[in-house]
Design a protein that fits this description.
The chain has no helices and 11 strands. By secondary structure, the chain is mainly beta. The strands form 2 sheets. Strands 2, 4, 5, 6, 9, 10 and 11 form a 7-stranded mixed β-sheet that branches. A 4-stranded antiparallel β-sheet has the order 1-3-8-7, with no helix packed on it. Strand 5 and strand 6 form a beta hairpin.
Length: 119
Amino acid sequence: QVQLVESGGGLVQAGGSLRLSCAATGRAFSSYAMGWFRQPPGKERAFVAQISQSGAITVYADSVKGRFTISRDNAKNTVYLQMNSLKPEDTAVYYCAARTGVGLAWNTWGQGTQVTVSS
C-alpha cells in the first residue's frame, strides 16, 4: 500500500496559480489511479480530478474544468495538480487519494494541504 504526502499549498491572490504535488512512498505507485479532492471550510469533501494508472485518462469536476490540470510522473511516484485562474471559492484543504481500480473505494489518503485564495 502507498503512503501519500501533499505539498505546494499556500496563499495566492485570485487569478493566480499554484501547483500541488503528492508524493507516494511504497510499492507499485503506477498500479494506482490517483485523485485530488478538496474540503472547503464548513463543507463536505468533494471530488476535483482523477487520473488513470498510465495517465492516459483524466476526469475533472465541472467547477475546475479548463483551469486545473492533473498529471502524474510514475518514475517519480508523484501526482500533480496545476491550478490556474484561481478563485476565492477554490479555497479549501486539498487531499490526494489513491485507489487500485475504477469503481473501487479511494482507500488511501494524504494529510491534506491548505490552499487559500484571496480576493
